[in-house]
Amino acid sequence: MGRSFADKLARRQLYSHVPEVEDGAGLPDYLAAHFSRFDRAGWIRAIETGLVTVNDRPALPGATVKRHDRVGYFPPEMPEPDAELQYRVLHEDGDLLVIDKPGNLCMHPTGPFFRHTLWHLVGSRYGEIRFVHRLDRETSGLVIAARTRRAAAAMDNGNTPVHKEYLALVTGDFRGRVHAEGILVHDRSSAVRKKKRFVFADSPDADATRLDPTAETAVTDLIEESHAPSDMTLVRAVLGTGRQHQVRATLYSLGFPLAGDKLYGPDERLFLKIKSQSLTGDDLAKLRFARQALHAAVLEFRHPFTGENLRFESPFPRTEFQF
């Protein structure tokens, strides 16, 4: 029997699933081999004090683990970094919520963030939720949350397509309209493993790129909206596919990096500096803004149960970006 949602909100749990090759390992040895928080003796103490579970049951120091077991650990509560905790609910019914998320707010618990996440804030108010899609921590704008398993399944089965548009403030003089149809692939020249690059479908190296095991098709229409001071352009991105980093990587590969983007901006080393907390004032000046200037501006979809066509819009936060 799993933990209740109220328990999940009250107490953070980290967990892993035991792979087949670890079948039969002693629990303290498994924990010490996979998690650097404690050595073997430290994990035995954690088990003895009730901080470790196996399949949601209190564990014993002499236990062994089996493949597919769910091993959990309750870390101590720690102060969380500041985040923007104010959000707006644009739509609410018994099945779905449409939420306008601020920038600088993680959607799910990750790293040092637990209570300072959209999942915890909304869940504390509405009960158990499941996000239908996700936004990066620094991306603001519209997101859908399902309030029931039935709604989550209905939104995830491909029968309820969601039309999405983003607004992106980019560096450079973007003009007209670009239909960017091609391939997203991991950028193997980058020191950051999760960074991607975009290759047009009709480019000379497209066929070779398709053979990369990380390759994904990506379609984005990019449309000039308006121009800002300091050589920046507000661009509307209409998504034909929904890939991770799709808008950011496509704009970067076209030569129009997103303002404020640490990974796809002027220097990817800034992203590495953030992880080591070594950003300087000059580094921040290069970025122009404290966060990436990307905003999920439009969501449109047909309600999976009522059949009603729903459209929601959120304006670009011009004041925040001095635009």
Brief sketch in words of this structure:
It is built from 9 helices and 15 strands. The protein has helices spanning 5-10, 27-34, 40-48, 118-126, 149-156, 206-210, 246-253, 269-275, 281-287; strands at residues 14-17, 52-54, 57-58, 70-73, 88-92, 96-101, 130-131, 140-146, 163-171, 177-186, 196-200, 216-228, 232-239, 294-302, 309-313. Strands 5, 6, 7, 8, 9, 10, 11, 12, 13, 14 and 15 form an 11-stranded mixed sheet that branches. A 4-stranded antiparallel sheet has the order 1-4-2-3.
Strand and helix map with partners:
Elements: H1 5-10, E1 14-17, H2 27-34, H3 40-48, E2 52-54, E3 57-58, E4 70-73, E5 88-92, E6 96-101, H4 118-126, E7 130-131, E8 140-146, H5 149-156, E9 163-171, E10 177-186, E11 196-200, H6 206-210, E12 216-228, E13 232-239, H7 246-253, H8 269-275, H9 281-287, E14 294-302, E15 309-313
Helix pairs in contact: 2-3
